[in-house]
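Late entry, written up from scratch paper. The run itself happened at the end of the previous shift, but nothing got recorded in the book at the time, so transcribing now.
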Amino acid sequence: MSAPGTFEILARDPSSGARRGRLWTAHGAVETPAFMPVGTQATVKSMTPRELEELGAEIVLSNTYHLAIRPGVEVIEACGGLHRFMGWTRPILTDSGGFQVFSLSTLRKIQPDGVSFQSHVDGTRLFLGPREAMDIQRRLGSDIAMAFDECPPYPCDREYACQAVDRTLSWAALCAQQRVAGSKQLVFGIVQGGVYGDLRRRCARELTAIGFDGYAVGGVSVGEPEAELLASVREGVSELPDARPRYLMGVGVLRQIAASVAMGVDMFDCIMPTRLARHGTAMTRAGSYPVKAGMWKSDLRPVEPGCRCYTCATFSRAYVRHLLNVDEMLGARLLTGHNLHCCLETMREVRRAIESGAFAEWSEEFLRGTTKEEGAAACTV
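Output as recorded:
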């Protein structure tokens, strides 16, 4: 086992920026490109840790803001840290809470050293800044801690985006100073800049000068058109060091993931697989479609023909639809398992394609088979 923070690039695609890697953490290795299921509240909704392992998940994400409010970092510490608390023995990445705090636009006040805000639970006045975010993540015991940043809204004018970059860089420097000597916890900086490419390049350069174990592109998938999202990824990644892992935050649309891998992104997370499942929508290679729709009432096919997940190997589309429509919790569980399998299996395909030198062909075929039309996949699956 290599030292935490070691990032090995095992293969590269000769026709793009795609690379196949391995990131070592205190709780083992993460094969990249990787998709991280989101366990905001110390659980990936409706899934047990054993089920996640069986699906092939190697790392999950939890959230500093939510866990600090409930149950509180003191409770998690008393239970032996986040890994023991949630029964997950593999790597965990914790978001800093910055995105959640800045989404509370009517409940917060930005200050030089952080953000004063009201809890969304009971209105209690709280404060979170780079020092607090790093302290909480250290006490949680996550393998990867994210620097505290400001995620500007979409749309926002250039002046606001510039101010957000300045604050992000100032807070990133403070986060770097909070690292404990000898700690095995990795720290990633976050590139911001809105839709302004020069601001993203500047932010990436200055974060690199500070020095982090890895780097994320944040502030995307916040309502902007897909073309602007991918342009922001391209600009943000362009100035990041090749030897460190790159993480695209909050993107779960498979065609966007495939396009971002080609730009050199190594890690992804998104709530989409679990959220869509709870609302009765299946993810497939061709796109997503509503399993709850009446047209599937007597359909004996699996959720996605050709899929090898437990749900598709065992149950019919009609049965899963029935469970969803009578609010049986098994329906959401089965669909969550399928959606996560879809994401994780896609990443396995990506890794194999890069290793074999066939990523360009795989990507072309994959993107040709996807659709931007919500529900269009229902016509083909």
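Confidence is low (pLDDT under 50) at residues 373-380.
(Scratch paper discarded after transcription.)
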